[in-house]
Design a protein that fits this description.
CATH class of the largest domain in chain A: Alpha Beta
Strand content of chain A: 15-25%
Distance between the termini of chain B: 24 Å
Largest interface: A-B, 20 and 17 residues
Strand order of the largest sheet of chain B: 1-2-3
CATH superfamily of the largest domain in chain A: Type I PLP-dependent aspartate aminotransferase-like (Major domain)
Shape of chain A: globular
CATH topology of chain B: Sufe protein. Chain: A
Low-confidence stretches of chain A: 1-5
Shape of chain B: globular
Radius of gyration of chain A: 22 Å
Distance between the termini of chain A: 38 Å
CATH architecture of chain B: Alpha-Beta Complex
Structural class of chain B: alpha+beta
Oligomer: heterodimer
Strand order of the largest sheet of chain A: 4-10-9-8-7-5-6
Number of domains of chain A: 2
Helix content of chain A: 25-40%
Radius of gyration of chain B: 14 Å
CATH architecture of the largest domain in chain A: 3-Layer(aba) Sandwich
CATH class of chain B: Alpha Beta
Mean pLDDT of chain B: 87
């Protein structure tokens, strides 16, 4: 049994005002954290504070507000850089989110590739870590290979090893599967990629909110994540990239801020990170994401991890007691994501009835249609937990689910 | 023969008795279970209206000067709402179907299922039902 002395979930819930909301007359039970997480008051306040007291464009004004805003934005970059242990803060590129980060790499790193070069992804990728590579492979005549997975929802490292060749230039794999919860052995996979000289991109959209991420320890070449899944705002995200590789890559978009000198004959580009940040960025978003990471980094992460695991285990055990439940994704290593089906009931119906009882779950294919095709199912019901969820909420969820099943079957 | 408006009023009256959401859904689920199924041979791709979450099959034919609809879905709540739409629009004249505003959906509190964000195929199904009516008006 873990020691919960310094982690008080009820105190933590006080930080998240939305958790006091009612939905359809019932207290909100929010189990759709895989889609987006809720925001603590400090994050909400920081957005308000920016627009109320120091809204200004950054990196270009000599006036006071612009300097305050620039400082706050760059402070946020530093907080994030320190948190994921990047070597330099200019290795942190602000983007719109994970999708944008991956598209940046697919375009820009893709420009360095030639016909016949190979990219490897896995069978459990989100559409945003499939489609950009397909587009890039089509554009550059590269080959896209896919590591298959088992019914349990685990990748085969033996197969991965066989797919790696001297032509492999990049491997892009998710750290945690959004629809199965599988935690992939990413550190080992990165080592294997490096042995053949390939770079490695980690899709961290579902991992940074659960684990301590250290990009130097992982030795990944790119790490992409979204602000809104790690208690920050939507529309802001991060691409971490190793300095040397980012310097080699051409800019992704042209515009203001990313240039050093523009003439009609030739433009020279700004240095990192600005080279990849064309135009006025999402200033309040970046600042608020810094606050979110700061908030999260002060929590006892080891205890949170243990607590989330306990929630997952409790929910799994409780659901196992219900007849007709089929789990999708039963990997040995899982984050707090629980995907399941009720035999004889459509996920849409179950989700609709749970919503009427105040419970937010995700239903559908979770932007991972290849996974649904692999299992031959239209979609799943997914409950994804955060550290502010409780066992009482899970008990209510299980009772509500039983009621829904009774109505539907 | 009842008009579209009369049937809508009847449905609104049926639903006025429910105070709880769950009772309302209990009723919709029953309607879904009772809906005559489309023969599997008609569940072909050209009759399929793909939603992100649930799928709908729609089949329309002309009988005299009326249109008759049969429809189905893989989700039971979607099917229950289809049953209501079929009850209102089937066996009606194309000109009446084309101008029906289906305000009853709002009045019985089910508008969320017909919102474009719901992605259950129902919005497209209603459009398709009206399109059949319009096509029949032209021909």
């Amino acid at each position: 049994m873990i020691n919960m002395s310094t982690f008080d979930v009820h105190a933590i819930r006080e930080d998240f005002p939305i958790l006091k909301e009612k939905v359809n007359g019932k207290p909100l039970i929010y189990f759709d954290n895989g889609a987006t997480s809720q925001k603590p008051q400090v994050v909400i306040d920081s957005i308000n504070d920016y627009y109320t007291t120091y809204n200004a464009n950054i990196h270009r004004g000599v006036h006071h507000l612009s300097q305050v805003a620039t400082q706050a934005y760059e402070d946020a970059r530093n907080i994030i850089s320190n948190y994921i242990n990047a070597v330099f803060s200019h290795e942190i590129i602000f983007t719109k989110g994970t999708t944008d980060s991956i598209n940046l790499v697919a375009f820009s790193f893709g420009e360095l590739l030639k016909e016949g070069d190979e990219i490897i992804i896995s069978a459990m990728e989100h559409h945003s870590n499939i489609v950009p590579w397909q587009m890039m492979c089509e554009r550059k005549k590269c080959v896209l290979k896919v590591i298959s997975m088992s019914k349990k929802g685990e990748l085969s490292l033996e197969e991965y090893e066989k797919l790696l060749t001297k032509n492999t230039k990049l491997v892009a794999v998710t750290h945690v599967s959004n629809s199965l919860g599988t935690v992939n052995p990413i550190a080992e996979m990165i080592k294997m990629a490096h042995q053949v000289g390939a770079k490695f991109l980690v899709d961290g959209a579902q991992s940074i909110q659960h684990f301590k991420v250290d990009v130097q320890a992982l030795d990944c070449d790119f790490y992409a994540f979204s602000g809104h899944k790690v208690f920050g705002p939507t529309g802001i995200g991060v691409l971490y990239g190793k300095e040397a590789i980012l310097n080699e890559m051409p800019p992704y978009q042209g515009g203001g801020d990313m240039i050093e000198r523009v003439t009609f004959e030739k433009t020279t580009y700004n240095s990192l990170p600005h080279k990849f940040e064309a135009g006025t960025p999402h200033i309040s978003g970046g600042i608020a994401l810094g606050k979110a990471i700061e908030y999260f980094s002060k929590l006892p992460l080891a205890e949170i991890q243990a607590y989330e695991h306990e929630l997952l285990q409790f929910a799994t055990d409780e659901l196992k007691k219900i007849e007709n439940i089929r789990f999708i994704g039963e990997a040995d290593e899982k984050a707090s994501v629980l995907s399941f089906l009720v035999d004889g009931a459509h996920p849409y119906d179950v989700g609709t009835l749970l919503d009427k009882m105040g419970i937010a779950v995700r239903t559908g294919h979770h932007c991972t249609q290849p996974i649904m095709d692999f299992y031959g199912i239209p979609g799943t019901i997914r409950a994804s937990f955060a550290f502010y969820n409780t066992k009482d909420e899970i008990s209510t969820f299980v009772e509500s689910l039983k009621r829904a099943i009774k109505m539907l079957i | 023969m009842q008009t579209i408006q009369e049937i809508e009023n009847e449905i609104i009256a049926d639903f006025s008795g429910f105070e709880e959401w769950m009772d309302k859904y209990e009723y919709i689920i029953e309607l879904g279970k009772d809906l005559p199924l489309i023969d599997d041979k008609y569940k072909v791709d050209e009759r399929l209206i793909r939603g992100c979450q649930s799928q709908v099959w729609l089949f329309a034919k002309k009988k005299g000067n009326e249109l008759v609809y049969t429809a189905d879905s893989d989700a039971i709540i979607t099917k229950g709402i289809i049953a209501l739409l079929v009850r209102v629009l089937s066996h009606q004249k194309p000109e009446d179907i084309a101008k029906a505003d289906l305000a009853f959906i709002h009045k019985i509190g089910l508008q969320e299922h017909l919102s474009p964000t719901r992605a259950n195929g129902l919005v497209s199904m209603v459009q398709q039902m009206k399109q059949y009516a319009l096509l029949n008006l032209i021909s």
